Structures are given as C-alpha cells and as structure tokens.
Amino acid sequence: MNDQILWFATRGAGVVSLLLFTAVVCLGILTVARWQSPSWPRFLSRELHRNLALLSVAFLAVHIVTAVADPFTSLGITAALVPFASSYRPVWVGLGVIALDLLLAIVVTSLVRNAMGQRAWRTVHWLAYAAWPLTLLHGVGSGTDSWALWMLPTQAACVLAVAVAVAWRFAADRSNRSQLASVVDGGSRGGA
Predict the structure, then answer these.
(1) Domain residues for 122?
(2) How many domains does the chain have?
(3) What does the alpha-carbon distance between residue 53 and residue 50 come to, in Å, rounded to a whole number?
(4) DSSP 3-state of 37
(5) pLDDT digit of tens for each residue in the chain (192 aa)?
(6) Is the C-alpha dihedral spanning 31, 154, 64, 87 positive or negative?
C-alpha cells in the first residue's frame, strides 16, 4: 500500500474519531441530564449515542491500524498498546494509548452491562470523561496537522461543544435540585 495513503488514512480517521467521540461525549452528557424533547424520544437519544460510539470505535480502529502500518511513524503494535512505548512522539502517542485503554474498558463493560449491574457499569463509563481530553491532547501533540488553519477551529469546536454540554448539564442539575427543593419545602409547609 502507498505510504502516503496510509498517512492520509491515519490523519483522516484520527480527525473523524475525534469528531465522533466529541459527539458521543456530548450526547452522553445530554442523555444523562435527561435531555429530550416531545418530538425526540429518549430511547432515540440512547440509540444515537450507542451507534455513534460504535462508529467512533470503527474509525479509531482504522486510525490505529493505519498508524501501525505506516512506516513514517514506525509505531509497531507494542507502541500502539503500551503507553509511552513509542519512539515517535512518545508522550503524545502514550496519551492516545491511555485513552484507548480507557475506551476499551468502556466498550468491554458495555458489552457485559447486564451481567455487571448498572452501578458498576456507570462507574466505569465515567472513564469517558478522562478519555476525551486525553484523545484531544493526543491529537494536538502527535497530529501533523494540529496547528493547520483547518484543524484549529475543528479542535476549538470540539472543546466548545463539550464545554457547552457540561455547562448545560450543570445548569440542568441545579435547576432540577432547586425544583426538588421547592417541592420538598412546599410539601413540608403545606403539611404543617
């Protein structure tokens, strides 16, 4: 296979993985916050989240396989699986490997979710909040296009999307708590 094709495939799959993973994280945050509209059933949010996650994993697999096969980086399978074992930008590639390990834990536990219980699965699923910034840092530090004019707004949009989803989540959580407090306070006053 042409080395240049591998290089473009690695870069392209990496960028698409970042975009999809960002969408998955945002949708996961919104789903947890019980975001929905009457015209958008909740099960659809969960299914979209799950399907985008699977698509993200597929693009991540392409990214890893093409990066390992690309002679420019000389990664090898060990560098793709063992954090900081790469001779090519070891810290940045290592962050990507750690993110991969966290994502694998999420995928594996999602496959056995019913057997392990909701609470344990949710605890492991929180690793997505650590994996996403590691993925972003991996791309910034090891990507050959990180500072390109087209990539800077892409990365900024990903950060902005997650920041907005997190802010919305905290605002929704505060709103739900204040509504609960008013119901509890109103109920105790009404009963007195």
Answers:
(1) 3-191
(2) 1
(3) 5
(4) strand
(5) 677 899 899 999 999 999 999 999 998 888 776 655 566 666 667 788 889 999 999 999 999 999 999 888 788 899 999 999 999 999 999 999 999 999 999 999 988 988 998 889 888 988 888 999 999 999 999 988 888 999 999 999 999 999 999 998 888 876 655 554 544 455 444 444
(6) negative
